[in-house]
Amino acid sequence: MSHKRIPKRKAAIAAGSAVALGAAALLLPHANASQDGAAGNAAPRTLKAQDASALAARLASTLGDSLAGTYYDSAKRQLVVNVTGDDTNAAAAAERAGALVRHVDNSTAELKAAARTLRTKATMAGTAWAIDPRTDKILVTADSTVTGARWDRLQSTVRSLGSGMATLKKSSGTFRTFASGGDAIFAQADGGTVRCSLGFNVTADDGSPAFLTAGHCGVAAKQWSDTQNGQPIATVDQAQFPGNGDFSLVKYDDPATQAPSEVNVGNGQTVQITQAAEATVGEQVFRMGSTTGLHDGQVTGLDATVNFQSETDPNGVDTVTGLIQTNVCAEPGDSGGSLFTQDGSAIGLTSGGSGDCTAGGETFFQPVTTALQATGATLGDSGAGDGNAAGNGNGNGAGNGNGNGNGNGAGNGNGAGNGNGNGAGNGNGAGDQAGGDQSGGDASATPGDGTGAGAQDGSGAQDGSGTQDGSGLTATN
C-alpha cells in the first residue's frame, strides 16, 4: 500500500517496492550554513541548494525579464544568474544579492519565442523541449519514435531558430506517462486496473484532507483505493491533463482522515514536507514512486513542453506544458509520485518521460507550486504537531528551535531532531521495502552503512542507515 494506515486512516506518502536498487547514494546534508556576504559585497555567496532556490525566486520576482535564467552550481555552491547585453542594473542587483553574474547572448524573451516556434512547427509525439540556463539554449529532445520525415522536420525547425538558440539530441527510450497497473494507489478503468503513486498530502480549499497526484491519473479514473481491487477511499476533485499541466487534486472520502505532510521513503522512515518550492536547474532532487522507490538526480530544464503519444487516439498528441525536466529515472506506476529536496521542499509530481531505472533517461514533473495555485490547496495537515510529527526545532522535532511536534521528528541536526530527539531509525537497517512495514535487520545489510540516523539518543550514526541529518535516507541514481 502506498500510504500508511493508522488510526483514522492516517495516510503517508507512497513507499516504493524497490528502495535499494544499484549503487546507493546517500542523501547528505550540507553541514555548513549559508555564508552571507555583507550588502554590496560582489563576492558570490556560498549557498545551500534551498537558499539558492529562494534567492533565484526573489531575483526573478524583482528583476523579471532582465534575467535570462538562473541555475545552481552544486560544485561551487553558488547561484549563477544569466544577464544579457549591457544590463548593468540587473547585474549589479544580482551581485549585491550574492549571485555570480554570467553574461549570455539569449534573453528569456528570445528563448520563450523559440519555444513557441517549436510548438507551432514541431509539435509531434515523441518530442520535448525545455529552457536550459546552463547552456543559454533550448534543449530539444526526440525519442526513438521520431524518425524519417518527422526527424527531418524537427531538425529543420531547430535550424530555423538560428545559430546558438537550441540544441537537438536523441533519446533511446520512448516518451510516455508512467501510469501502470500494480501497487500504491489503484483505480478501475476501461483498460483494467490503473496504478499510480500518491504525491503529496494537502488540505483542500474547503479544509478537507486530500492529496496531489498526476493529472493523467485523475483523468483515467475518478475513484481511488489504497489496495488493488479494494474499496475506494478518495475521489478526484480536479484534474488537468493534457494542456497547461499534469496534476490532480483527490479528496479523501472520510473527512476524518489524517494526512500528514511527509514522504514515506521506505526503510520505516519519512521526510517531513514543510513547504513548496520552485525548481532550480542544477539542484539535487529526490523522487519517490511506487514502482522504483527512491531515486535522485538533478533538475536539467524548466518550462518544459512534452508531446506524449495520445493513449486514446493513435494519431493524436497529448501536449503538456510548464513542466520540470530532470535526469532522475522513473518507470510505469511512478506517475504522480513526489519530487522533493533533502530539506523537505515539495518540488514536483511525476508526469512521464523516457527510459527506465536500468538504462536511465529523462523524466518530467509537474511543478507543485503551480498545482497548489490552480487547485487552491495548501501543503500541511491538521495533525501536524501531534504524536510523531516532526518539529522545526530543538528537542524531539526536526530542525532548529522549538519543534512543532512533540514526537520523534526526522530532520536536520544530530540524529532525528537537533537535541535529545529520538533517532528516526533506532539503529536498524533498511526495512519497509515494497511498501511494507518489515523489520530491516542490522546495518551491515543496508546501503549507506554506518552513517545512519541516530539511535536512541538521536546522536547521529550508530548502526542505522542514512545520514546524520536524521533523515536516514538512501537513494539510488
TrEMBL record:
Keywords: Disulfide bond, Hydrolase, Protease, Serine protease, Signal, Zymogen. This is Protease. Residues 423-477 are annotated as: Disordered. It comes from Streptomyces echinoruber. GO terms for cellular component: extracellular region. Residues 211-372 form the Peptidase S1 domain. Residues 423-439, 449-469 have a biased composition (Gly residues). Residues 1-33 form the signal peptide. InterPro entries: Pept_S1_alpha_lytic, Pept_S1A_streptogrisin, Peptidase_S1_PA, Peptidase_S1_PA_chymotrypsin, Streptogrisin_prodomain, Trypsin_dom. SUPFAM superfamilies: Trypsin-like serine proteases.
